[in-house]
TrEMBL record:
GO terms for cellular component: membrane. It comes from Alligator sinensis (Chinese alligator). This is Transmembrane 4 L6 family member 1-like. The gene is LOC102384755. The lineage of its organism: Eukaryota, Metazoa, Chordata, Craniata, Vertebrata. The keyword Secreted does not apply. It is a multi-pass membrane protein.
Length: 195
């Protein structure tokens, strides 16, 4: 496969991942479909790791990859530019992975029944982490199902960020090869009749 086609393939795969990351991050603002006050939403959601990191910072390289591909044989300058933007995509994916991991470790902000929103699982001294001890999830009374809501969405963002970072890293290598060797090798037709 020529590097131009590989670039286009990676660019096409990044678009749905970036859209899913943006939607997942937006859903974290509305736990269980409820509209809450800003001080009742988990603080790590405000880092925009899905919107900015795995979303916008990945859509930009995806556009460039499609532009650099421009068919089978594109220019070397486009491939080099796609390398720099792919590095930006790697950073965006890594940022999303980092914040999502922290969100999973800290757990959600929730009301434990006394009307005050706290992080009951942050710096927890439980024998087992709350992620693997489902019986502790009942500590959070409001919003309903906030623990599973956060686990699913932060895990989804963690996975999306990882895949995006890997794809962008592949594009960095692919772009360098395309810049150095050209984006595609043209096949030469041999005129057998002329021999």
């Amino acid at each position: 496969m020529c590097t131009g086609k590989c670039s286009k393939c990676i660019g096409v795969m990044l678009f749905p991942l970036a859209i899913c990351a943006i939607i997942s991050n937006l859903l974290l603002y509305f736990p269980n479909g409820q509209v809450l006050e800003s001080n009742e939403i988990t603080d790590l959601v405000w880092f925009f790791h899905g919107i900015l990191g795995a979303g916008i910072l990945v859509i930009l390289p995806a556009f460039m990859m499609l532009g650099a591909a421009g068919g089978c044989c594109a220019n070397r300058c486009g491939m080099l530019l796609s390398v720099f933007l792919a590095v930006l995509g790697v950073a965006g994916g890594a940022y999303c992975v980092t914040i999502s991991s922290m969100g999973l470790i800290d757990g959600p902000l929730c009301d434990t029944g006394d009307g005050e929103y706290i992080y009951p699982f942050r710096n927890n001294t439980l024998k087992y982490n709350y992620l693997f001890n489902q019986t502790t999830w009942s500590i959070c009374k409001k919003p309903e199902n906030i623990v599973i809501w956060n686990i699913v969405l932060f895990s989804l963002l963690l996975g999306i960020g990882t895949v995006e970072a890997v794809l962008c890293l592949i594009q960095v290598i692919n772009g360098f090869i395309g810049f150095i060797c050209g984006t595609c090798m043209k096949r030469r037709k041999i005129d057998i009749a002329g021999m």
